[in-house]
UniProtKB/TrEMBL annotation:
It holds the Pfam family DRMBL. GO terms for cellular component: nucleus. PANTHER family: DNA CROSS-LINK REPAIR PROTEIN PSO2/SNM1-RELATED (PTHR23240), PROTEIN ARTEMIS (PTHR23240:SF8). Belongs to the DNA repair metallo-beta-lactamase (DRMBL) family. GO terms for molecular function: 5'-3' DNA exonuclease activity; damaged DNA binding; endonuclease activity. This is Protein artemis. It is found in: Nucleus. It comes from Citrus unshiu.
Length: 473
DNA sequence: GCGATCAGCT
DNA sequence: CACAGCTGATCGC
């Protein structure tokens, strides 16, 4: 297969055209504000979000792919020097805002790259996605399907996001006097938060950069950075921990909710399928040990909601397709061949293991433009984002550099400050706040307490405490 | 000094 | 374990 034409979610040198499926960090490794390697195709929404994630990026390099419409891209075969074209369309991947599945058609066939995707069957939006895909494919056969195989195992079974969102609403409603902390990422889960806000008629706190994102996505009223306006806060997932929750509970009754597709093994394993025995054992033993029969009662009451800590609920809200959804998707697409995109997981399963029988590799495929197929020898070399284990150097003893002391005694290096600035946090304002802290009502006891708490938890600017005590004074 | 990359962690 | 992500440290330019 000829390399050097097109890369998807891969940013190394050597391609003529680059595609981004969505703006999650693990798909943009290697992409930076200084990007200059070539035209960058993405969805309209991703293009809109780009300046926030990559300020200073040369926007003239961005090419917008509208969902369902076709674009012709001229490329040059590195080997023969021949000019040829690739047609590309985009299907909504329903993973996070702006996420798309690029569909390529060219002389040698048809390729579909799902990126990360969720293929729900039950709602109107999913129906539109399905119709867009059917229309785009027409009579073409997908020769190679690059598949998001994150949950490509029958063990992974979880409900639609609509159902999971209602489970979250039920949990919050059943804790009317509790504060609520929900762990989210920099992009995604907006509809969950919208559902909560809509059903409970409540605003939702998010951190400042996330509010900017929400505004770009068109949400203008339901999100706030003022903690006094709501008891529901969505915080970065990495600042969400048992320690954080326990600390918050020393001040005010607080529950945590983790929306995630990960630890859900609801259905028993069917014949032929097995996961390594250790895969979930530690996770499961954790909540079994701490919650006992209460967990069972809760599971009965709330379906597949689990509680692995007395104040933390885990809800099966996933932005990736579960096994049965992958199956439905494959029944629809019926590709000639499948390649899994996600290979880093220890429970990686080659999609062919479960879905090989759905492939029509033995059938003579009906290809797009048979004539051109004979004339040109170029193929799309979609470079796949494989997390191949590279020979990593052995561990080196690292000396801990003395950290500089920043605002409020929080350890903050220059690197921190830079990263913070890149994320759009207003460092200067925070410093002013800190220097005038007595003027805005925090007494010295409170500051000492804040310093201790802050250092003790080890979370930095996104720590719920931080905004609780500082930004909303 | 800065960006890229790695290791560690959740 | 790791859905996606942050942080600290090192290395090369």
């Amino acid at each position: 297969m000829e390399k050097g034409l097109i890369s998807v979610d891969r940013w190394t040198e050597g391609s003529q055209v680059y595609f981004l499926t969505h703006l999650h960090l693990d798909h943009t490794q290697g992409l930076s504000s200084a990007w200059a390697r070539g035209p960058l195709f993405c969805s309209r929404l991703t293009a809109k979000l780009f300046p926030l994630k990559f300020p200073g990026l040369d926007l003239s390099l961005i090419r917008v792919l509208d969902i369902g419409s076709w674009h012709s891209i001229f490329v040059v075969s590195p080997s023969s020097g021949e000019k040829t074209f690739v047609e590309v369309s985009a299907i909504d991947a329903h993973h996070c805002p702006g996420s798309v599945m690029p569909l390529f058609r060219e002389a040698f066939g048809c390729l579909l790259y799902t990126g990360d995707f969720r293929w729900e069957a039950s709602n109107e939006r999913a129906e539109i996605g399905r119709n867009t895909l059917v229309k785009a494919l027409k009579d073409d056969v997908v020769d190679i399907l690059y598949l998001d195989n994150t949950y490509c195992n029958p063990s992974y079974a979880f409900p639609s996001r609509e159902v999971a969102a209602q489970q979250v609403v039920d949990i919050i409603a059943s804790h009317p006097d509790h504060d609520v902390i929900i762990g989210i990422d920099s992009l995604g889960k907006e509809e969950l938060l919208f559902h909560i806000s809509h059903k409970l008629n409540i605003k939702i706190w998010v951190w400042p950069e996330r509010l900017q994102t929400m505004h770009l996505l068109g949400f203008h009223d339901i999100f706030t950075t003022k903690t006094s306006l709501t008891r529901v806060r969505a915080v970065p997932r990495y600042s969400f921990s048992v320690d954080t929750l326990e600390s918050l509970n020393t001040m005010h009754p607080t529950i945590g909710i983790m929306p995630s597709g990960l630890p859900w093994v609801v259905q028993p394993l069917k014949g032929g399928g097995s996961l390594p025995g250790s895969l979930f054992s530690s996770y499961q033993s954790k909540w079994r040990a701490t919650s006992g029969t209460q967990t069972e009662k809760l599971k009965e009451a709330l379906g597949s909601v689990d509680r692995f800590h007395k104040c933390i609920y885990s809800v099966p809200y996933s932005d990736h397709s579960c096994f049965t959804e992958i199956e439905k998707f494959l029944n629809l697409v019926q590709p000639s061949n499948i390649r899994g995109i996600v290979s880093s997981s220890s429970c990686y399963v080659d999609p062919l293991y479960y879905f090989g029988h759905l492939c029509r590799a033995n059938q003579p495929p009906l290809r797009y433009n048979q004539e051109k197929r004979v004339q040109h020898k170029t193929v799309v070399a979609a470079q796949i984002k494989f997390n191949v284990e590279s020979g990593r150097s052995t561990k080196v003893d690292r000396k801990r550099r003395t950290a500089e002391v920043g605002i409020l005694g929080v350890h903050m290096s220059k690197v921190d400050a830079l990263r913070r600035a890149r994320r759009g946090a207003k460092l200067a304002e925070l410093e002013i706040l800190a220097s005038n802290v007595t003027c805005i009502g925090l007494n010295s006891e409170c500051i000492v307490w804040l310093q201790n708490t802050y250092d003790g938890i080890g979370c930095k600017e996104y720590n719920p405490f931080f905004y609780l005590l500082i930004l909303d004074v």
